[in-house]
């Protein structure tokens, strides 16, 4: 399933989508649109980016949901597309849909699209940034009030023996670049694995089942850490 939404405000545009793969764990993504756009353009951007994510996951069937009747009806052909820019977006979407064996697309109430709407609104409200290609927002579960003294800490460490694999994860999270020569199943497995990681302050972390972020170390960093423990 793919839920998409776009947002345009004084601070700029935002495109958000939430992918819900067969294994059930939602994949929420927000994109800050650092260019002049209308709300309809932002909606289309969210749909295009979400479909590309689904292709990367190797999806063969996809159910698409959005709260923009205009976009949905333009894609299905119910409405004519008279705006030149929106027509280009629609053509991109129709070309992307050829990658799937089958698909459905339908308009839903905004109240049923709140997750994607939140991602789009968040991205639109963030001021434009140029230092990095991504800005990371960590949302963690807190099961008890902080005054009970059980705050989640970011202090666990996991190591990797192959820096190439480490860099592949970073490249995908930072630039959506997949490793070359992957099969369709290989791409799906890699994206599933990569989505368990996040980058905060330029450092790669793996999300643990208990909400703790596990810092990933390159080979030379892990060797140094082990040496410090022995010392």
TrEMBL record:
Pfam family, one: RVT_3
SUPFAM superfamilies (UniProt xref): Ribonuclease H-like
Example GO molecular function: nucleic acid binding
Domain of life per record: Eukaryota
Domain RNase H type-1: 1-125
InterPro entries on file: RNaseH-like_sf (IPR012337), RNaseH_domain (IPR002156), RNaseH_sf (IPR036397)
Species of the source: Taxus chinensis
Protein name: RNase H type-1 domain-containing protein
């Amino acid at each position: 399933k793919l839920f998409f939404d776009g947002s345009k405000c004084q601070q700029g545009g935002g495109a958000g989508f939430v992918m819900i793969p067969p294994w059930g764990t939602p994949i929420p993504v927000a994109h800050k649109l650092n260019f002049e756009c209308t709300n309809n353009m932002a909606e289309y951007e969210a749909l295009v980016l979400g479909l590309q994510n689904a292709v990367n996951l190797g999806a063969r069937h996809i159910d698409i949901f959005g709260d923009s009747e205009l976009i949905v009806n333009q894609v299905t052909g119910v409405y004519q597309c008279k705006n030149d820019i929106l027509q280009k977006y629609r053509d991109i979407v129709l070309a992307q849909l050829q990658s799937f064996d089958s698909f459905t697309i339908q308009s839903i109430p905004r109240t049923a699209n709140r997750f994607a709407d939140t991602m789009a609104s968040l991205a639109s409200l963030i001021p434009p940034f140029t230092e990095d290609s991504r800005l990371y927002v960590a949302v963690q579960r807190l099961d008890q009030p902080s005054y009970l003294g059980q705050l989640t800490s970011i202090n666990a460490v996991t190591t990797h023996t192959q820096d190439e694999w480490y860099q592949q994860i970073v490249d995908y999270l930072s630039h959506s670049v997949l490793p070359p020569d992957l099969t369709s199943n290989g791409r799906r497995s890699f994206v599933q694995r990569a989505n368990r990681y996040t980058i905060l302050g330029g450092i790669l972390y793996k999300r643990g089942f208990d909400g703790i972020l596990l810092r990933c170390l390159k080979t030379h960093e892990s060797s140094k850490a082990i040496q410090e423990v022995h010392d």
